[in-house]
């Protein structure tokens, strides 16, 4: 067996070998002898089956197993020559050449290794930024907003025209083509004008209406409305205004602070301001991270950290991009790609740069997660999906099962790891 091993770069290697047919035949003999001790063949006792019978019965399968064993030997010796251990391999080795003749088999095996990434200077790559500041005015406005949200609704004393921000207490019934439709009626429903809770145009037509007045409101259900029987339909609503409510006046003082800080001993307005300021600072910092710094940091890491990429991983990323593009193509366009290999290769190459950046980012985040001790357990992924589902009014369990069945959980988990890694690096910059 002649073996020639070549380390192409830090992430890819190729092992070439010439296997003689004598070696394959020797493997056939060895495998057949082993089978003769365990095989069940009619007319022979177990363990007493002649080798010649085994060869006749298993024929081509013996040859395939013998060749596979020879390939395994080529791989093992090649990796030993290259000083590559199995733990550093990524994916399955790829047989790129298998030329069989009467007296030999010429093979080439490609292997990919986990790239070695130098993270020594990674903290110096984190961009400089200033921690967002919060003004006293912003704190006061937020406390006022919280206080107003906490305040109870009260009926207005004088019968004035309604304006945006008022809460209308209404009876209504909806009709399409003169006929009432299911779910289109309610009594004493409290609707805050300007909230966008109802169909577009409904709330606008209540502005200027007074208590005890009756009006007819004409609207059109959106084309993407949840109900197929209502989507895109013109509707008429008979509406009676039973009352108008506004938020009661609130006093911003220590008593309010005690209500809003129930776990705090000796809660005061000054303490409330401190807590609100901290919350606003965190909100601003999170917004800065998500909208500007995290994308910028990841781009810098991909640009500045240099290492070799496993070819097959990049090819897989390109395959996914091509498949996604193909799903948006017409049958004629797909046919043209099938009949024109050069055009298909051109399409594949158009995705290479983005694929390489994506793969590089994945390896960098993975290496940083290990370096920083960042982990995201499946329970955390589940909690995140549950929370987002509840925020959008979905069934949390069904949402989780949907993502799981579709195979999205690993991608969600990786996205969460990426978010944690970038946040950790940015937080260290803030604290430095």
Automatic annotation (TrEMBL):
One of its GO terms (cellular component) is cytoplasm. Pfam families: FKBP_C, Trigger_C, Trigger_N. It is an enzyme of class 5 (isomerase). Its EC number is 5.2.1.8. The keyword Cell cycle applies. SUPFAM superfamilies: FKBP-like (SSF54534), Triger factor/SurA peptide-binding domain-like (SSF109998), Trigger factor ribosome-binding domain (SSF102735). InterPro entries: PPIase_dom_sf, PPIase_FKBP_dom, Trig_fac, Trigger_fac_C, Trigger_fac_C_sf, Trigger_fac_ribosome-bd_bac, Trigger_fac_ribosome-bd_sf, Trigger_fact/SurA_dom_sf. It is found in: Cytoplasm. Keywords: Cell cycle, Cell division, Chaperone, Cytoplasm, Isomerase, Rotamase. GO terms for biological process: cell division; protein folding; protein transport. One of its GO terms (molecular function) is peptidyl-prolyl cis-trans isomerase activity. Residues 165-247 form the PPIase FKBP-type domain. It catalyses: [protein]-peptidylproline (omega=180) = [protein]-peptidylproline (omega=0). Belongs to the FKBP-type PPIase family. Tig subfamily. Consists of 3 domains; the N-terminus binds the ribosome, the middle domain has PPIase activity, while the C-terminus has intrinsic chaperone activity on its own. Involved in protein export. Acts as a chaperone by maintaining the newly synthesized protein in an open conformation. Functions as a peptidyl-prolyl cis-trans isomerase. This is Trigger factor. It comes from Sulfurimonas autotrophica (strain ATCC BAA-671 / DSM 16294 / JCM 11897 / OK10).
